[in-house]
Write a structure and sequence with these properties.
Elements (H helix, E strand, L loop, with lengths): L1 E5 L6 H8 L4 E6 L7 H5 L8 E5 L5 H8 L4 E4 L6 H4 L3 H21 L4 E5 L23 H19 L3 E7 L1 E3 L10 H10 L4 E4 L4 E6 H12 L7 E5 L2 E4 H12 L3 E4 L12 H7 L7 H14 L9 H10 L1
Parallel strand pairs: 1-2, 1-4, 2-3, 4-5, 5-6, 6-10, 7-9, 8-12
Antiparallel strand pairs: 9-11
Helix pairs in contact: 1-8, 3-5, 5-6, 7-9, 7-11
């Protein structure tokens, strides 16, 4: 298949695309805002003859349209990721994460590309006490989550209209090793603190957060890609279900880390029920939490993380200054 991955040079895409290219021809459309050079990203591929890298801003509708021509399937990962990055400039965020993603979707419509996988977010559910299922009414509380919900709603309209093979994925908070590392994800932040012999700062701690290893999520996307049972469905994708403090205590147990609890009002709290993806598609997430944490900490100790590109908020700040 000819697969186009929009936003394929991000945290997930840098894990997903090299695996995907072993079976398919992969076109990566990305602005490459989070890489020092496109050539560094290309080094991730064992066989670069099966990958095509194109620098492309999804806000440019004509460019997106032209580069999607010939695609058998499109995977959209592009957006301004996480709440604090999105809040820096709401207009910029809306332009990228809503207008840009709608450019991708509407180009798929005009080009009759039926197969589309949209990566949404579990944060669309908002604050919930009971585990959320795919039919739980979304009540997002941040701009990032509101935009994800709006995109989901439009895709659900296309599903009802018929003629498309759309899958919406709502992943948990991701963690784990990626060539385009992020130091602004909860478990990655904790691992970075451990690596640098610093205390783990927990804001509140009672909030529930589902978690999932980035490689497990990437493998889920690959398994779903050609699975007709997934067409026109929404799936929660998660494995772990703990409070923020419980996650911190795992690091304390494994590494003797000091935990500092700060009283910060962070209302975001939800637990994800991901039974549907296992029941319907048989997808199992195999990375054990302790193993994923150890692999991440070991990687941080061995490899230097490019901190100029590993915190989304700092990269977006630089973009807004230009």
């Amino acid at each position: 298949m000819n697969i186009t991955v929009v936003g394929g040079a991000g945290y997930v895409g840098s894990v997903l695309c090299p695996i995907l290219s072993k079976q398919h021809n992969v076109k990566v459309l990305d602005a490459f805002w989070f890489w020092e050079s496109k050539e560094d990203y290309l080094k991730l591929f064992e066989d670069d003859s099966k990958v095509c890298l194109i620098t492309c801003d999804i806000r440019d509708a004509d460019s997106i349209h032209n580069h999607l021509i010939g695609s058998d399937a499109v995977i959209n990962l592009a957006c301004i990721s996480n709440d604090i990055s999105s809040d820096l400039d709401p207009k910029f965020t809306h332009d990228v994460s809503y207008n840009g993603v709608m450019n991708v979707i509407q180009s798929c419509e005009r080009l009759y590309i039926k197969r589309l996988i949209q990566v949404s977010s579990g944060s669309v559910y908002g604050v919930k006490e009971k585990p959320v299922r795919e039919d739980t009414y979304p009540e997002p509380i941040t701009q990032y989550a509101v935009i994800k919900m709006e995109i989901d709603h439009y895709l659900q309209y296309l599903m009802r209209r018929g003629g498309y093979d759309i899958t919406i994925l709502r992943p948990a908070t991701l963690y784990g090793r990626s060539p385009r590392q992020r130091l602004d994800l909860m478990l990655n932040i904790f691992a970075d603190k451990v690596t640098n012999n610093q205390p783990i700062v927990v804001h509140g701690g009672s909030q529930s957060r589902p978690a999932l290893h980035v490689k497990d999520f990437s493998n889920s996307i690959i398994n779903i890609l050609s699975n007709k049972k997934s067409y026109n469905q929404i799936y929660n994708v998660s494995k772990e279900a703990m409070t923020v403090l419980e996650y911190a205590k795992i690091f304390e147990k494994m590494y003797g880390s000091e935990i500092v609890i700060e009283d910060v009002n962070d209302a975001r709290s939800w637990r994800t029920d991901s039974e549907k993806i296992y029941r319907e598609l048989g997808i199992i997430h195999r990375t054990q939490l302790e193993s994923g944490i150890k692999d991440l900490v070991d990687d941080f100790k061995i490899n230097n993380i490019n901190r100029d590109y590993s915190v989304n908020m700092e990269v977006v700040k630089r973009l807004l200054c230009h």
